[in-house]
Amino acid sequence: MNYVIIGNSAGAIGCVEGIRKADKEGKITLIASEPHHTYSRPLISYLLLGRTDEERMKYRAPSFYEDNNVDTKLGVTVTKIDKDDKIVETDGGEKIPYDKLLIATGSNPFIPPMGGLDSVEKKFTFMTLDSAHALDAALTPDSRVLIVGAGLIGLKCAEGIAERVREITVVDLADRILPSILDSDGSAVMQRHIEKSGVRFILSDSVKEFSGNTAALNSGKTVDFDVLVIAVGVRPATALAAEAGIEVNRGIVTDAHCETSVKDIYAAGDCTESLDITTGQNKIMALLPNAYMQGECAGQNMAGVEALYDKAIPMNAIGFFGLHIVSAGSYDGEEYVETDGENYKKLVTKDGLLKGFIIMGDVRRAGIYTSLIREKTPLETIDFELIKRHPKLMAFAADSERRQKLSR
After folding, report:
1. Using the 8-state DSSP alphabet, how is residue 25 labeled?
2. Helix, strand, coil shares of the chain as percentages rounded to 5?
3. Does 17 have pLDDT greater than 70?
4. How far apart are CA 305 and CA 321, in angstroms?
5. Whole-number Å distance between alpha carbons of 243 and 265
6. Each residue of 46-84: pLDDT tens digit?
7. d(CA 72, CA 90)
8. How high is the mean pLDDT of the chain?
């Protein structure tokens, strides 16, 4: 069997390991535009902080490709998928045949239309190792940094550079920070915490235009800066799939086996849509754990072993300036809330099931809540009143299989 993987992040690595569980001999060719060994993107901010280095950022051991007999073509871009002849073409003119193909092209930074952007000399995104190095080289202790975007990427950037620059201003059109993972109360807690580190927020506003190192906002305010970081969000990298005739909505459409609309072509990670079991809707869930599980599922199916990717939920485990967050699922339902300083907990139930949660501060045992959502555990079968306040396995019915699942 001849396997080809486009990409080199979590989905691609999951695919390699999924294939090798079932097929130790088939040829695997991995092609990726970035020239680097696979690395963990969430650690980019810690690289700038000096808390990690490129060696420790590696997502797998240096010998991973050799150990799994993977032929790598790093720094090479796939320009075309020929689904009829089952060939991928690269920017170097090479034509590589496949029997089974995985698309794990990830996402690209979204650059919104902003007048005068070309007049800004020092402007960066913050998604890749190379973009982090470029930003790092531009910073000085006197730098005034403007970050456009108060989401996950923008605030991780702020955390990574806060101790190395004079000031940071974050502008976002939303009325709160981290709107994709936090409710209004949780957002307010986190904003107060980050502001203690000197970060200034301008919310419910956006950049109208740039004139050199001055940003004019729609509110009439102006912000002077030396370095600009655009972190408004990302868009799934679906162009390659769409041009090949593969069904694409907002992301590449996949089934429970992670196969696309074209036979023998699979997809995983940030470039895809998948079923959110908490809402029953297909959506993009650009999260590293989901990407890995999706890739592993695809790899097993590519190698002829049936596997299902049927427990996907939106989930984040992240921290900013020392305050940690774990969130998962959806927030439509009955709410239970606890708050105490920087500790914040919100559980959302509906139809006798836990549908979602936000925990900030003390995030120990959050995994129990995540498992309740993934396993769709009926709350009537457990002591949920106790678990709401003190999530411990003793609160579960004496069911060894359930206890094993929930203690993972």
Report:
1. S
2. 30, 30, 40
3. yes
4. 43
5. 14
6. 999 888 999 999 999 999 999 999 999 999 999 999 999
7. 13
8. 93
What is d(CA 56, CA 51) in angstroms, rounded to the nearest whole number?
10
Tokens of 117: 């952007």
Place of tokens 């590449």: 252
Q: Quote the CA–CA distance of 101 and 82 in Å, as a whole number.
A: 11
The pLDDT of residue 398: 45
What length does the chain have? Answer: 408
Amino acid at 135: L
pTM of the model: 0.91
Cα–Cα distance, 63 to 181 (Å, whole number): 36
Signed CA dihedral, 271, 56, 62, 326: sign only: negative
Question: What tens digit of pLDDT does each residue of 80-138 get?
Answer: 999 999 999 999 999 999 999 999 999 999 999 899 999 999 999 999 999 999 999 99
Pick from 338, 173, 7: which is nearest to 369 by CA?
338
- Considering the chain, what percentage of its residues have pLDDT values greater than 90? 85
Return all residues near 159 (Cβ < 8 A) that are at least 6 apart: 45, 49, 320, 321
Say whether 48 sits in a helix, a strand or coil: helix
Which residue reads 């419910």 in tokens? 204
> Cβ distance 284 to 304 under 8 Å?
no
**Is residue 404 scored above 60 in pLDDT?**
no
Rg (CA), the chain: 22
**Which runs of E-coded beta strand occur in 225-314?**
227-230, 234-236, 252-253, 265-267, 272-276, 281-283
pLDDT at 399 over 60: no
Q: Please name which of 230, 194, 184, 183 lies closest in space to residue 329, comparing C-alpha atoms.
A: 183
CA dist 288 to 10, 56, 128, 131, 185, Å?
Answer: 6, 17, 14, 19, 26
